[in-house]
Amino acid sequence: MDSAFYDDGTYKPRESPNPSGSIVKTNESVVNMTGDTLVKGFGGPDGSKGIIKDGTAFQPNGYNKVYDSENNIWMDGQFKSCKLWNGKLYLYNSDGILLKIEIWKNGAYHSDAWL
């Protein structure tokens, strides 16, 4: 089913209307805490929007360690077509406090890591 994270950090189902106007539940996408709609099996957020610190260029199809504008690690792992494929996605609140780490495998959200 389509799901979303809420301010309290809970992961709750979300319903979507189909073309006929009725409500359906789907498992084709997830909305993560940053508001990105991520289609399962098609990779995580686009890492090319982040910052690479080691002076190398972002590798659209390879390993990257990507930071956000606040200098926090944002993504760490293997990318495919610029999207996180196998690795970790770090999610922070507006104060820069780490809320959770998502594990991505084969282009889909897999689980949360323990903090």
Pick out its properties.
mainly beta; 115 residues
Order of helices and strands: EEEEEEEEEEE
Query: What strand order characterises the main sheet?
Result: 7-8-9-10-11
- The whole-number mean of residue pLDDT values reads 77
Number of domains: 1
* Approximate strand percentage: over 45%
Give a quick account of the main beta sheet: strands, pairing sense, barrel closure.
5 strands, antiparallel
- The tally of beta strands, per DSSP, is 11
DSSP helix fraction: under 10%
| Anisotropy-based shape | flat
Straight-line N-to-C gap: 26 Å
Give the low-pLDDT segments: 13-19, 21-28
Rg value:
15 Å
Structural class: mainly beta
User: How many helices in DSSP terms?
Assistant: 0
List the helices and strands and how they pair.
Elements: E1 3-5, E2 11-13, E3 16-17, E4 23-24, E5 29-31, E6 37-39, E7 63-67, E8 73-80, E9 83-92, E10 98-105, E11 108-113
Parallel strand pairs: 1-5
Antiparallel strand pairs: 1-2, 3-4, 5-6, 7-8, 8-9, 9-10, 10-11
Explained architecture:
- The chain is mainly β.
- The protein has one domain.
- The chain has no helices and eleven strands.
- The strands form three sheets. The chain has a five-stranded antiparallel sheet with strand order 7-8-9-10-11, with no helix packed on it. A four-stranded mixed sheet has the order 2-1-5-6, with no helix packed on it. The chain has a two-stranded antiparallel ribbon with strand order 3-4.
- The radius of gyration is 15 Å and the shape is flat.
- The two termini are 26 Å apart.
